[in-house]
Amino acid sequence: MSKHFRVPGRLSSKLKESGVHVSSVLQSAGLPSGLLDQPRVLVTTEEFFALWRGIGQVSPDPAIGLALGTAEKSEHFDPVVLAALSAGNFGEAMRQIARYKQLSCPEEVVLEPGDQEWTIQFRWLLANEEEPAVLTDLCFAWVLSIARHGTGMRISPVRLELQRPRASARSLERHFGCPVVFGAARNAIVFRAADAELRFVTRNAELLAMLAPQLDEDLKQHKGEESFPERVRATIQRKLTGSRPKMGEIARELHISSRTLQRRLQDAGLNFQKALEEARHQLARHYLTNSLLELSETAHLLGYEDSNSFVRAFRVWEGVPPAHWRGAQREKALS
User: Fold this and answer.
1) Which of 39, 48, 140, 304 could be a cystine partner for 310, CB 3.0 to 4.6 Å?
2) Angle at Cα 86 formed by Cα 80 and Cα 87, nearest 5°?
3) Beta carbons within 8 Å of 286's beta carbon, 6+ residues apart
4) Contact call for residues 191 and 118 (beta carbons, < 8 A)
5) pLDDT per residue as tens digits for the range 292-331
6) Where is the HTH araC/xylS-type domain (predicted)?
7) What is the spatial distance between Cα 216 and Cα 207, in angstroms, rounded to a whole number?
8) Which fold has domain 5-205?
């Protein structure tokens, strides 16, 4: 997993086009004045969140995230999105994006298919604070932009779910063309399950055949740069969806034997139980910071049998119960 975000090179020009002074944004965010002048801008999650909070504070437009997340011209799409637009349908496109997203940042695109609905969320893997509202708006506007560009239709989601209090409701409803639920337990954009099968008019098998091998090679090199324990923890986190994954299951996901998994973890000074607890710890911080899930729901998602087991584990990790830790994080975000 990459530990840094790449800030798009066009961000400065897009901010200027929107009437936002870059220098004011960086000053508000507490970031170096020449940060966006570099040819390749890499920032931590904390710096990335600060940047987007700064944009929200400086911009007079409460819908600035929607504007920055909407791309009208295909030449403004990066290779990952171009590959996605070359796919056969909306679902395939988002699976492409979810696969390659880890090339550029510590973020996951989480796709949850269901019988009636198809939910898309963004998970900030190294976040210790709530994501800025501007960034949430941008991410969901970006997904909608891909859907509309690919299908050639003015597709709209079923609803938008936002954790924040009600604000700018009319702008959001007009942009997404659907109801917006404020004070929700999660940040999510929800489509109809059938929308995943909508064919893309931008489908381009030849372009995909050109882009995919390079992206796959980049992904292979990226995974080679990851330490083995990081790969194990990331795999465990993908499997922590209400049950505790067993070592054999993780080994199969990594295409190695359980014995090899054990040996390679031992070489790094770990064992599977330790890797599991580290994965749970990191994911617990994410859920407590970025969702309104009850402790019982969080415990279930992390594969604990009951809330008490989760609370005991969290006290070992952080020295305080999870409810106290969550409260302290929210106070810090408001200060």
Assistant:
1) 304
2) 95
3) 123, 124, 125, 127
4) yes
5) 778 888 888 888 988 999 999 999 999 999 999 888 877 7
6) 230-328
7) 14
8) H-NOX domain (3.90.1520)
Going by C-beta distance under 8 Å and a sequence separation of 6 or more, which residues neighbour residue 280? 236, 240, 302, 303, 313
Backbone dihedral angles phi then psi of residue 167, each to the nearest 5 degrees: -165, 140
| DSSP 8-state symbol, 189 | E
Question: Domains of the chain: which residue ranges?
Answer: 5-205, 227-334
DSSP 8-state symbol, 271: -
Contact between 96 and 80 (Cβ < 8 Å): yes
pLDDT tens for each residue of 142-187: 999 999 999 999 999 999 999 999 999 999 999 999 999 999 989 9
DSSP 36-76: GGSSSEEE-HHHHHHHHHHHHHH-S-TTHHHHHH---SGGG
Q: Spell out the residues 6+ positions from residue 104 whose beta carbon is closer than 8 angstroms to its own.
A: 2, 5, 6, 80
Please give the angle made by the CA atoms of 28, 285 and 42, to the nearest 5 degrees: 45
The runs of H, that is alpha helices, within 70-199 are 79-85, 90-100, 133-151, 169-176
User: What letter does residue 226 receive in the DSSP assignment?
Assistant: S
Query: Is residue 161 within a helix (H) or strand (E), and if so which, with residue range?
Result: strand 159-161
Chain position carrying tokens 């530990």: 3
Q: Which tokens hold the place of 197?
A: 């099968």
Give dist(CA 241, CA 238) in Å, integer.
Answer: 7
Which amino acid appears at position 188 of this protein?
A
Predicted TM-score (pTM) of this structure: 0.68
Backbone angles phi, psi at 303, to 5 degrees: 85, 20
User: Phi and psi at residue 253, in whole multiples of 5°?
Assistant: -60, -35
Confidence (pLDDT) at 143: 96
User: In the chain, count of helices (H) and strands (E)?
Assistant: 16, 7
Handedness of CA 201, 206, 210, 215 (dihedral sign): positive
33-63 burial, b at 16+ Cβ within 10 Å, e below that, comes to eebbeeeebebebebbbbbbbbbbebbebeb
User: Any idea which architecture 227-334 has in CATH?
Assistant: Orthogonal Bundle (1.10)
